[in-house]
Amino acid sequence: MILVDEPRWPWKGRRWAHLVSDLSYDELHRFAERLGVPRDVFQGDHYDVPTEVRERALRLGAVPVPSRELLSRLRAAGLRQRPSTRRRGSHRSS
Length: 94
Fold this sequence. Notes:
This protein has helices at 25-35, 51-59, 67-76, and strands at 2-4, 9-11, 14-21, 47-50, 63-64. By secondary structure, it is of the alpha+beta class. Strands 1, 2, 3, 4 and 5 form a 5-stranded mixed sheet that branches.
């Protein structure tokens, strides 16, 4: 399932949310492609998306969840990467 939290994180004059899958990185990459989000902005276990992309994600079926739930479900799926080991573009499939 594709999950997206609330756009709480400010950067470059916009608010950003996290887009993840609790199933696989492949599912996440396919969904991001549908949104037009380039793969090179993948953050190792999530995509950062601005508010307007989050809204499109919701229209395409992403499920809105609080940040804590998003993180919990990512961990439960075994897909969470620690920030110190996360690299842009890593884990292209799973």
